[in-house]
Amino acid sequence: MNGNDMTRGEFLLSSLALAALPASADGVTGDKLKVKDIVVEAGAEKPFPVLHVSDTHLTAVYPAEDKWKQEMSRADTPIFGKRQEEALAESVAYAKAHCNFLLHTGDLMDFVSAANLDLVRRHLPPGCLGALGNHEYSHYGWLAKKAGTAGPGREDTRKMLSKFYPFRLPIAAKVVNGVVFVALDDSDGTVSADQVAQFRNVVTKTGKPVVLCMHVPFYTLGICKASKRWWKKGTDEANPELSLPDFERQRSDQTTQDFIRYLKEEPRLKCILSGHLHRTVEDRFSQTAVQYVAAGNFSFAAQMVRVV
Ligand SMILES: [Fe+2]
Questions:
Q1: How far is the CA of 138 from the centre of ligand 1 (A)?
Q2: From ligand 1's centre to the CA of 236, what distance in Å?
Q3: 173 CA → ligand 1 middle, Å
Q4: Distance 11 CA to ligand 1 centre (A)
Q5: In angstroms, what is the span from residue 57 Cα to ligand 1's centroid?
């Protein structure tokens, strides 16, 4: 995929088309959501809200699916509160009623199963934007390994998932009221040279303010500290640079380091929206952008991003 394909295919979903979406007809109201308000001063032509959710961790499985997936579902469903599908449905309904579009920044599924894929197809509305998370890959590979098969690689997994997710992989963009949202797959903590080239192409060609959306947040000291506290790993506060694996991969990958350095100097970057940590965190990323991390959608968490 090149940048021209992306601008043709994904760019021009307008706010007008999405504003006409009907409210949910199945009794789901979105009123159970815990919605946190965020204001992003991007210089929009007209203010608009976006509903940002992440980490729903669907754990559905059909009876006929393999025993490893049954096991995974049994183990993880209670961990994520047993109501993940309801949380997703509430989010979709809330976005339809109150927002311009829904943004999901990954780990929509806890692991790949036919039942989870059917839920993705059933619930994610056309016009939503999003990125994949590490669970869309790692548990697929992990489960295949357990079952004694080689399992698919990242490219094959992505190709398969792209049939179910209604947004482009591994990078997608849309323009709303003069603001560009770019969602990219950084689910292993890094970005590729091709993603960077496409991102820069979008920024240069449009000349518009940008909101970057992805699963794994980019390292900042505040986000790293919060992440360590939450996951009870590397809790050495005196040595905050002692980092977590995701941030170590970011640090050791030259392409990702160069991208982060460029983003910090890019005045058109107005905000980063991410997930992965399962808790709400925010920290300044650059002079022009704050990075906001959404808590797990499995706990009915959502962020109302008011772009002004
Ligand atoms: Fe997650």
A1: 11
A2: 23
A3: 23
A4: 28
A5: 7
* Tens of each residue's pLDDT in the chain, 308 residues: 333 333 222 322 222 232 233 334 456 777 799 999 999 999 999 999 999 999 999 999 999 998 989 999 999 999 999 999 999 999 999 999 999 999 999 999 999 999 999 999 999 999 999 999 999 987 767 777 777 777 778 888 999 999 999 999 999 999 999 999 999 999 999 999 999 999 999 999 999 999 999 999 999 988 888 887 766 654 455 555 556 788 889 989 999 999 999 999 999 999 999 999 999 999 999 999 999 999 999 999 999 999 99
Q: Which residues have a beta carbon within 5 Å of ligand 1, which is an ion?
A: 55, 107
Per-domain boundaries in the chain: 3-307
Quick one: which of 8, 125, 120, 14 has its CA closest to 59? 120
Ligand 1 centroid from CA 18, angstroms? 28
Q: Which CATH class is domain 3-307?
A: alpha beta
Task: Give every strand in the sheet of 301-307, ordered side by side.
Answer: 34-40, 301-307, 48-53, 101-104, 129-130
Distance 122 CA to ligand 1 centre (A): 21
